[in-house]
Amino acid sequence: AFKAAVLIQQWYRRHVARLEMRRRCTWRIFQSIEYSCEQDQIKLHNFFSYLMDQFTPSSSKERDFISRMFISGESYKEAELEKYCDYESIEVPDSYTGPHLSFPLLPDHATALLEAFQQKQQLHARYVLNLLHETRKHLKQLPNISHVSTCYSEEITVCGDLHGQLDDLFLIFYKNGLPSPSKSYVFNGDFVDRGKQSLEILVILFTFLLIYPKEVHLNRGNHEDHMVNLRYGFTKEVMQKYKVHGKKILRMFQNVFCWLPLATLIDQKVLIIHGGISDTTDLDMLEKIQRNRFVSVLRLKKRKESSGKPQIHAINGESESGTDAAPRLSLQPQSAPAPSTANRREFSRWLRQTVQEQIDTCRRLVDISESEPEELTYSSMVSLKDADESCWTCQEEWKQVLDILWSDPMPQEGCRENKVRGGGCYFGPDVTEQFLEKYSLQFLIRSHECKQEGYEFCHSRKVLTIFSASNYYEIGSNRGAYVKLGPDLIPHFVQYQANKTAHLLTMTQRQGFLVALFAKISRVEESAFRALREKLFAHTSALISAFKSYDRDNTGKITLSNWATAVESVLRLGLPWRMLRPQLVRSAEHGMLEYKSWLDDLAMEQRSQEHIQSSLLEVIYRNRSNLETIFRIIDRDHSGLISFEEFQQTWKLFSSHMNIELTDDGINDLVRSIDFNKDGNIDFNEFLEAFRLVRQCP
């Protein structure tokens, strides 16, 4: 009996170890794909910024239209914003059965909202706009770094990313209690995107913020950014829920986001920021900057409205005297005189050469070597002829905000660029130690990264990551957590999983722990590998080229080791491909893989529900997310439709970059051909279909 017990114990431990290994591999897949998508978003945004900075409008009307379409409403002045989002002009019909709000808000209003949202009711647009109006007024009075003390409450609860998962917020309040004079909360950003109830979360948090302004504190996250919202769902969610007043609500949210504080400091000892720090993070500078200038942290607003703005010149070198003058930034040394704009091809060639000369000049002046061209985009530069101290100060302030919202800790020493996300930096334990010592802090609390257990310490327990969205990647993928701090500042964690299925699995564990654990891991694992196979299929063409480089004799076969190396060289996800191979490669004789057959099998999986050729499907899989983001950028009014004018002006932007000569009549013919149902607008399906048809052309 004793030997049998030992054997069972050994078997059990081996099996649990295998399950843990599979769980960690699954986690790596989810996280790598997530960060890859964030990197794509920043690359896409940089691309549009590059086009914007080099585009030469032919008239003031065209210039204004492009600016309205690609730049957010940061130019809205106070009076204009109030007039545009006039909530008082919106009537609430008698048929409305949802919650009603009146200001100043009371705790009963918050309770009514919680009950209404639990019953899937929707708050009327008038009340949403009124709430945003009052929230904005309150946030404008707050400092960049909120100061909180445990002297006024028994403990302070810190919550991490919620990402539109309302059930997690409900569970936090159920376990920990609602905000009150004796129950303080700090919500550390990323309230929106990915989940389906971002708007409800914001309404609840803003309501409690107005009721208990001294007990509820909100930090800005990297997803409180209108450019990020275009890709990850919040923009779409608002427009779907408020079809009539959605544009006004979105505009107000954009403005409210830029007024959110950047950090919270507890007892002058614990700093709470969303992302992290860098070796140049300066709390004194963060305290003083005008945070509302950064409507989108992804784009630095370069053109100054003050008297110190860069001098603008016309393309032909003369001063700008008329409204139709085409501006460009004047940089030294001066380029060759511009050719006549009548010859579009020669003019475009000259423009590209001029831009490259200007970028080279920028590199020389700021002492950046040619080995780093990808790190310096034209969109990140200002006119260096007039690059006075104020210009560089603005850029440094922007970097300060970018770093605290986008950065991640790393185990290695030092501080380096965060190429995995595409923004912010990686900071090591030495950077943390120096920062804490400089400002006499005990430790940092940050969010920004999903953790399997909902929280994680690093840097000798000097950096704490807290993540509050459970089941983030898939049901059962991770726990959520929040942390409570008392006067002793010792963290106490509470973990949870909000999904009902997860609770059922927990009950099942009493009867069969391994069965439940295996079922949960298998479900999450299958979801991860499905996403990974889609990623592989989307890069079929590049994979074939990589495989052929190892198949010098054209046998159609490569070793499994070369397969792993080639896949990583194409996808660059940093995954343990040799460990993942059994789940991705079903058959391989004598350690050799027939890669064309493997890719055909991969294509069959993705093509099972599609009836278009594999090469086209591959392109759409690879580009759909970017295409959808581009569509939403062009769709300036978020109506779900691109007007002919929006498309025409966007095409001019692209054609200027790609050196495509097309007359206005040609653009009109193009846009009419894409409008398949002839309703005078282009919807997303027509946009995708046009893309597919273009790819079919030889």
Automatic annotation (TrEMBL):
EC class (word): hydrolase
Chain segments carrying region Disordered: 307-343
PROSITE patterns with a match to the protein in the record: EF_HAND_1 (PS00018), EF_HAND_2 (PS50222), IQ (PS50096), SER_THR_PHOSPHATASE (PS00125)
InterPro entries reported in the protein's UniProt record: Calcineurin-like_PHP, EF-hand-dom_pair, EF_Hand_1_Ca_BS, EF_hand_dom, Metallo-depent_PP-like, PPP_dom, PPP_phosphatase, Ser/Thr-Pase_EF-hand_contain
Leader peptide range in chain numbering: none
Domain of life assignment: Eukaryota
Coiled coil regions in record: none
Cofactor(s) this protein cannot do without: Mn(2+)
Catalytic reactions on record: O-phospho-L-seryl-[protein] + H2O = L-seryl-[protein] + phosphate; O-phospho-L-threonyl-[protein] + H2O = L-threonyl-[protein] + phosphate
Gene3D superfamilies: 3.60.21.10, EF-hand
Record EC number: 3.1.3.16
EF-hand domain segment(s): 538-573, 622-657, 662-697
Keywords: Calcium, Hydrolase, Manganese, Metal-binding, Protein phosphatase, Repeat, Sensory transduction, Vision
A GO MF term: manganese ion binding
One GO-annotated biological process of the protein: detection of stimulus involved in sensory perception
Biased composition (Polar residues): 331-342
TM segment ranges: none
One Pfam family here: PPP5
Membership in a protein family: Belongs to the PPP phosphatase family.
Protein name as catalogued: Serine/threonine-protein phosphatase
Species for this entry: Rhodinocichla rosea
